Each structure stands twice: as structure tokens, then as C-alpha cells.
Task: structure prediction
Amino acid sequence: MESLTQKEIIERIVQIRKRAGHSQADIARALGLKSATYSMIERGKSKLTIPYLKIIAEFLDVSVYQLLLGEQTMRTYSNQRISKPQQDDEKIAIIAHYMLERCAYLPHVNLNFLYKLMYLADFNYYQIYEEQLSSAQYKKLNHVPVPQKLDTIMKHMLTKKIIKRIKIDDGDYPMIRYIPLNGVDLRKILASEKQVMDQVFDRYARWANKTLGQFIQNDLPWQATMEGEVIDYESVFYRPLPYSVREDEVIQRSL
Result:
């Protein structure tokens, strides 16, 4: 996918702003900026940031992706890929099981940490292969990308004695952990899927929970999503470094 320059994105903003009858001062107020400061953004004298882009998109009643891609391009790519997956509970369970197996000996890995590792594996895989890994949908909830239905899936795994739940008392903050009771059937995981999950584990599994959370909160898919909404996989193609895992897709001339 060809990346857009900041100039091209701003041209789209100006076009939509004028079509809607808004002035620069209107958007400046929405951003909490002086008109002269916002004018510098439209003139390319100041950088357009992702947080500003989100506010502008909301003010103009369009999606961030419409500003990044344009309506015609959005239609074209929606025909090529389905970024909203049809959830496969069995596949989600297999991916969660494998990640838990890899993390079993790490004392800091609780449920929230598992969510974050799965998010990175899922979105990295989609950026590289343009296909779904686990098929999970993630909601932006309370600083954590929460995979939908995973709680129900894990309850089923507990019933089937695939995993067990343990409570670790650590001062004022007891921690709940999930430990696999048997190994994953690797025949159900593609080599490409395992490779991406292993890369995520090797890079992030030893990070502190808070540090990993802060890292994810600066990822473009997270930033482009409002609280409580489903995080759209399609935005991975606009990740800058160090988040992009597909070098030919990195926007180096844009945001």
C-alpha cells in the first residue's frame, strides 16, 4: 500500500473542512489551539500528530482512515481485505494456550499481560501477512486491549482442564495467573503464526506490565480508537517505527 505524505493528508482535511463549512478557527477551537497555530499545521509549517488527527476526524465526523486513505481507497482496500475478523473460538483458545505455555515460568504474567501479548501478535501478523492470526476482536478498555470472548473461552479451557487458575498473594495486590496443564498441539498452528508469536514473546515477555501497556498506548491502532470501541486492524499499515513489522509499509514521509 502506498503511504501518504503529511501534505496529502492535510489537503484531505482542508477539502473536507471546507465542504462541511468549517473555518480554521473552528478546528483550532476543537484542538484547543490558537487559530494561528492551527494555520501553521495546514500550511505544513507544524507537524500533524496522531492525537490531533483523531480530534480532527471526530470534529469532521469522519474516520481517521478516511483521512489517511480517502473514500475511494477505503472502498478498494475493503474489497481486498476483511479487517474485522469472524471470531473462531477454537483458534483463539489455541493462540491463548500457546502464549500461556511460553509465559508459564514468568511470575509477572497475569491476564492483562496476556491480552497485550496477544494484541501485539495479532496485529503484527495482520500487518505482515494481511490475514488474521487468532481472529480475536480487541476493544480499547481501561488502558488494555481486551480480546472479546476470551474470558468465556478461558472458562471453557478451565472446565476442560487445559489450564488452571492460581492466585498469588503478593502484599496488597494479589495476582491471578493461568497455567497450562498440557502442551499445545503444534499441528494446529502454522509455522508463520508460531514465528510471529515467538518474536512477540522474545521481544516483550520480560517487559514490566506497565511498560508494555505504555508501549501499546503509543501504537497507532490504539491511538486511532476511542475508548470502548473495537480496534481496527487496518490501521497497522500506517504504523511508524518502532511499531511497524513490515518495513515496506512504514510511513517515513507522513505522520
Summary: Residues 89-249 form one domain. The beta strands are 138-141, 144-147, 163-168, 175-180. The chain has a mean pLDDT of 85. Residues 111-129 form the longest helix (19 residues).
